[in-house]
Amino acid sequence: MKVAVLLSGGLDSSTCLAQAVKTHGSEEVFALSIQYGQKHQREIKSAGDIARRYGVALKFLDLSGIFAESQSALLSHSKNDIVHASYSEQLNELGGSGTVSTYVPFRNGLMLSAAAACAQSLGASEVWYGAHRDDAAGRAYPDCTPEFVAAMNTAIYEGTGHEVRLHAPFINMNKADIVKLGLKLKVPYELTWSCYEGGDRPCGQCGTCIDRLEAFHKNGVRDPLETPEEV
Amino acid sequence: MKVAVLLSGGLDSSTCLAQAVKTHGSEEVFALSIQYGQKHQREIKSAGDIARRYGVALKFLDLSGIFAESQSALLSHSKNDIVHASYSEQLNELGGSGTVSTYVPFRNGLMLSAAAACAQSLGASEVWYGAHRDDAAGRAYPDCTPEFVAAMNTAIYEGTGHEVRLHAPFINMNKADIVKLGLKLKVPYELTWSCYEGGDRPCGQCGTCIDRLEAFHKNGVRDPLETPEEV
C-alpha cells in the first residue's frame, strides 16, 4: 500500500515518516514538503535531508500565495515577531485557550487537502500527518485537534470517492511520547529542525524549541541540536 | 458579515455569487477564482466578467502545480479527451456509480481549503460553494456529495478555531432549480461559461453542456449561449 507523508522537516513529521517507512517500506512511501511562506527555509532543507536518509521520494509544493493576506507570526511577510514563550504561557495569556500567534489560517487543512490530491493522483491510499496532543491543547493550533482530524479524514475519504484516508498516528500522544518512539526507531534527530527562527542553531526560546527540549529531557536524553550552554 | 465565494465562472457558482451578493451586499462579498490546470482559460475570463458585473473583489489563486500527476480529462496536460456524453450516460457506463473522467483528485477539497485559509486571513466568516445534487449523483463528483460537504464544513469550522463555516446553498437542488433561482435573480448567464472545451462557443456535447442546456429547457427558456442551430 502506497502512502504519502506530510514532512515539514521537524521532529513530529520526521518521526511520522520513520513510522510510515517501518510499516510500509521506503518504496511505498513518498514525502510532501510544503512551502507556505514560512519565515525561513531551514526546515525545508531538513525535510530534504530526512527524505534522502530514508530513501523516499520527496515532492515539493508551493502554497505560499494563499497566505499572502495572513499576518501569522510564522510567515515571512508578517510584521509580527515570533513570541519567546512556551505554549502553556501563551495559552495563559489567552485566558486558557485560543489560537497562538504562530497559527497560520487553516494551513494544515490546506496541506492535507493538497496531500490528498497528490496521493489520489499517485495511487496512494493514505496521507500520514504528525499532529499530536500538545499542539491541540487549548486549541492553540485548532487544525491539530482530534475534532479537526476526524472531520478532515471523513472529508478526504468521501471527497476522493473512498480512495484515500487520513492517518494521524500521534493524535493521542504528546511530544515526549513521540520522541520516545523516535528514539526507538533511531530517527536521525540531528537532521531535523523545529525552531521557528531560522538561525544557525535553534533559538531555544520559541514555543516549539521549549516543547522540543522538554520532550527530550522527559526521555532522559539530550536533543542532538542542543548547545552545551543550554544544558 | 464578510463572505468568500468560490467562483469558477460557470452557471452554478455565478448563481451562488448572485445569491451571496443579494444576502450580504457586494461590499461584504469577495470571489475566489482558482487556476488548477484546466484545459482552457475561458471560464477564468468569465469569472472576471461576473465579479466585475457584481462589483465584488476577485482574488486569483494558482493551484495547478498540485495536479501535475493527475490524468483527469479536465486538465491541460492530460492525454485523456473530454467525453462527449451526458453524466447519466457516463454513470451507466460505470455501472451506475463512480467518478467520471473529468473528476480532478480532491479538487474541491483543495479549493475549499484554500478559500477557508483566505477567508480567515481576510476576516470572512463563510465560504460559499455551488455544489448541487446533479454533480453528486452516483458519486460522479464525490467532492460534491452532501457527505463530503458536511465533513468539510466540520473540518473548516474546527480547523479555523470556529471562525469560518462552509455554506453550500444548492446542496439539495438540481441544476434546473439553480437556473430557476438565477433567472429570478437576473444572473447575466450570457457572461458565464460551463463547457469543458475551450472553443468560441460551447460544444453542446460534453456532460456539463448537456446538463446546462437541459436545465434551461426545463425552465422553458433558452440558454443565452445556445446557438440557433442547437434549438
List the topology elements:
The structure is a homodimer of 231-residue chains.
Chain A: E1 3-6, H1 11-24, E2 29-35, H2 42-54, E3 57-62, H3 87-93, H4 107-121, E4 126-128, H5 133-136, H6 146-159, E5 165-167, H7 175-184, H8 207-218
Parallel strand pairs in A: 1-2, 1-4, 2-3, 4-5
Helix pairs in contact in A: 1-2, 1-7, 7-8
Q: Low-confidence segments of chain A, ≥5 residues, pLDDT <50?
A: none
Order of helices and strands of chain A: EHEHEHHEHHEHH
- For the record, the CATH architecture of chain A stands as 3-Layer(aba) Sandwich
Tell me the number of helical segments of chain A per DSSP (H or I, 4 or more residues long): 8
CATH superfamily assignment of chain A?
Answer: HUPs
| Number of DSSP E strands of chain A | 5
Q: Return the structural class of chain A.
A: alpha/beta
How big is the Rg of chain A?
A: 17 Å
Widest beta sheet: strand line-up of chain A: 3-2-1-4-5
**Basic shape of chain A:** globular
**What is the percent of helical residues of chain A?**
25-40%
Strand content of chain A: 5-15%
Largest interface: which pair? A-B, 47 and 46 residues
Distance between the termini of chain A: 43 Å
Summarize the structure.
Chain A has helices spanning 11-24, 42-54, 87-93, 107-121, 133-136, 146-159, 175-184, 207-218, and strands at 3-6, 29-35, 57-62, 126-128, 165-167. The first copy, chain A, has 231 residues and is α/β, with parallel strands linked by helices. The interface between A and B is large, with 47 and 46 residues.
